[in-house]
Amino acid sequence: ESAWASVQAAPADKILGLTVLYNNDTNPSKINLGVGAYRDNDGKPWILPSVKAAEQVLAQTETNKEYVPIVGSPKFNELIKKMLYSHDEAGKKLLEDGRVLTAQGISGTGSLRVLGEFVRTFYPKSKKVLVPNPTWANHVAILEKAGLTTGKYSYYDYKTNALDEAGLLNDLASAEPGTVVLLHACCHNPTGVDPELEQWDKILDVVSQKQLLPILDMAYQGFRSGSPIDDLAILFKFNKAVVDGKISNFLLSQSFAKNMGLYGERVGSLSLITAGPEETARVKSQLEKVIRPLYSSPPSHGSKLVEIILSDDAIYQQWLKDVRVMSDRLVEMRKLLHDKLKNTYKNPLNWDHLLNQKGMFCYTGLKEDQVKRLIEKSVYLTSDGRISIAGIYPANVDNLAKAIHEVTT
Ligand code: PMP
After folding, report:
1. What is the pLDDT of residue 160?
2. Cα(108) to centroid of ligand 1, in Å?
3. How confident is the model at residue 36 (pLDDT cuts 50, 70, 90)?
4. Closest residue to atom 2 of ligand 1, CA basis
5. Beta 251-255 vs 268-273: how paired, if at all?
6. Of 128, 127, 197, 184, which Cα lies nearest the Cα of 156?
7. Which end of the chain has a smaller Cβ tally under 10 Å, C or N?
8. How many A from CA of 321 to the centre of ligand 1?
9. How many CB atoms lie under 10 A from the CB of residue 376?
10. Does residue 14 surpass a pLDDT of 90?
């Protein structure tokens, strides 16, 4: 008998299952709004011109394919620290004081997993992480596989399609002191709803009062405002909170999957704020002990591209333009769909949230039975009503609006 005879089939992955249905659909005007990956105005994947340029430089200059250190190359980590912590006074102070420890991770997922493992092993106050309700489907699995338990805090108000500020603040205020709390830095997945800056101040007040340990997950840096630097506004608040002594630490995971389009290259980073250089060295030595048995050292191709993009001024400027192109296109598609729904089809529902929500996703408010009917019309989206704006382009928006109109009236 096979060793695996008793293995039961796992339930199908929500999003991958949708892709299978989409691929099997023979309707030529089928629409895929499931995947969270950027598509251009023709509905095609896009390699960023800055990445193409970096590939060319790398092809000319690469001298080896050696292993990189366990925590990634020193050059990569220095450039990441500069990208994240050199644009505000508090960030600069943290860098100067040797309080930032950065390591390369395997994109956002791998970085979060390493942070989870580190917290579970070394954080003495709690083994529990609160995540927003709803959150990215993988968050709970990543953190629980890292040995932590998870709970939820209120986040989204289904009646107003906006942030449930009172619920959020109340749930954080009711948490056990010291609890870990995961926060989406910007472009919350799946809702597209972020706290405004003054709401972040209130969140930070509660985090400070309850001594919560924040983990910021930043997978869409640049997609909120169109600028990766402007999107650091909330990180600046956390930096300042540390410098002002309101909170003592926070953790950050960051991904280049979306903002450099390096999805399959698996490149990102994790950062921890420490008390100072001596603690940074101790923590780094233990971080190496966490990473080594997981995957020895991170992949180097994507991180070499990131090094080139962040250090070559012309390519860096191109990258900023590329992010702007992606972000502008998503905003355009939001407007186009809104215009079709309201002006062409005269849909009676309020679609303002389509315009107000940020980033790659819109939480439409469509109910499960409406989603089912959309899928019957060859429009594919997850059962929670989330649509990936990246899947909309000028040639399919009319069909999409018509289908949404039909299932909502
Ligand atoms: N966090 C959030 C909120 C995400 O949406 C994603 C991507 N879907 C990630 C992290 C990590 O993705 P990756 O591992 O591809 O960087």
Report:
1. 87
2. 5
3. confident
4. 219
5. antiparallel
6. 184
7. N
8. 22
9. 10
10. no
CA distances from 11 to 14, 15, 16, 17, 32 (A): 9, 12, 11, 10, 21
The pLDDT tens digits for 70-101 are: 999 999 999 999 999 999 999 999 999 999 99
Does the reported pTM lie above 0.80? yes
Ligand 1 pocket, residue 36 CB under 6 Å:
yes
**Cα separation, 325 vs 321, whole angstroms:** 6
Q: DSSP readout, 245-285?
A: TS-S--EEEEE-TTTS--GGG--EEEEEE-SSHHHHHHHHH
Helices vs strands, H then E, count in the chain: 15, 13
Query: Cβ distance 286 to 145 under 8 Å?
Result: no
Q: Enumerate the active-site residues.
A: 136, 217, 258
Question: In terms of DSSP bridges, do strands 386-388 and 361-363 run parallel, antiparallel, or are they unpaired?
Answer: antiparallel
- Name the nearest CA neighbour of 221 among 209, 208, 235, 237: 235
Tokens of 34: 């499931």
Residues forming a β-bridge with 150: 129
**Is the CB of residue 136 below 6 angstroms from any atom belonging to ligand 1?**
yes
Which residues is 105 bridged to in the sheet? 268
Model ipTM value = 0.98
With a 6 A CB cut-off, is 191 part of the ligand 1 pocket?
no
Alpha carbon distance 39, 16 (integer Å): 17
